[in-house]
């Protein structure tokens, strides 16, 4: 029984990460018609992973505790603006928060094991929203990358410096 619980938890975490990263991906393709996006669960390796392609989004999926989204725009097109980059960075946390709210509401109409899975999935997505918005760097075993909150904060600081005019 405990093995089934461990597998369920890993699937909930992986699905939550996938939804979060797809939030970033949808924001990127919405922000620019010239962007192509890759979503990775786990490492950036493309081998031994399920490959899923949805329009301009390519996903490399596995059971994982971390993930990231990478967008590319061809050199002949302008890079993302400040607002587009903010939109991209906040896409994942917003997706996590929205799915958390939806799962929480739906869990009231489902009982038993399915209801427990929904409420735990809601909690996992809320946790993912909170931890991704805290400005910090993830530990190495979770990828070692800066959180969305830290990237937004750094982007805002850089933008503020660029807008400051010295006389």
The share of residues in extended strands comes to 5-15%
Report the order of strands and helices. HEEEEHHH
Number of strands: 4
Radius of gyration: 18 Å
The computed structural class is alpha+beta
Q: Ranges with pLDDT <50 over ≥5 residues?
A: none
Separation of the first and last Cα atoms:
69 Å
The chain-level mean pLDDT equals 95
Discrete helix count: 4
Q: Notable features of this structure?
A:
single chain, 167 residues, four-stranded mixed beta sheet, alpha+beta, 4 helices
Secondary structure elements and their pairing?
Blueprint: H1 2-31, E1 35-41, E2 50-54, E3 57-61, E4 67-73, H2 82-107, H3 112-133, H4 148-163
Parallel strand pairs: 1-3
Antiparallel strand pairs: 1-4, 2-3
Helix pairs in contact: 1-2, 1-3, 2-3, 2-4
């Amino acid at each position: 029984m405990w093995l089934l619980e461990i597998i369920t938890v890993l699937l909930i975490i992986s699905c939550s990460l996938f939804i979060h990263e797809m939030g970033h991906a949808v924001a990127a393709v919405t922000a620019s018609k010239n962007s192509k996006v890759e979503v990775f669960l786990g490492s950036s390796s493309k081998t031994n992973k399920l490959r899923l392609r949805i329009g301009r989004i390519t996903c490399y999926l596995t059971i994982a505790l971390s993930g990231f989204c990478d967008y590319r725009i061809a050199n002949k097109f302008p890079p993302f603006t400040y607002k587009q980059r903010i939109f991209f960075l906040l896409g994942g946390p917003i997706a996590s928060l929205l799915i958390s709210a939806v799962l929480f509401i739906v869990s009231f109409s489902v009982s038993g094991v399915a209801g427990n899975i929904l409420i735990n999935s809601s909690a996992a997505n809320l946790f993912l929203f909170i931890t991704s918005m805290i400005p910090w760097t993830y530990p190495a075993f979770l990828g070692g990358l800066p959180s969305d909150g830290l990237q937004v904060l750094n982007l805002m600081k850089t933008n503020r410096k660029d807008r400051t005019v010295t006389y």
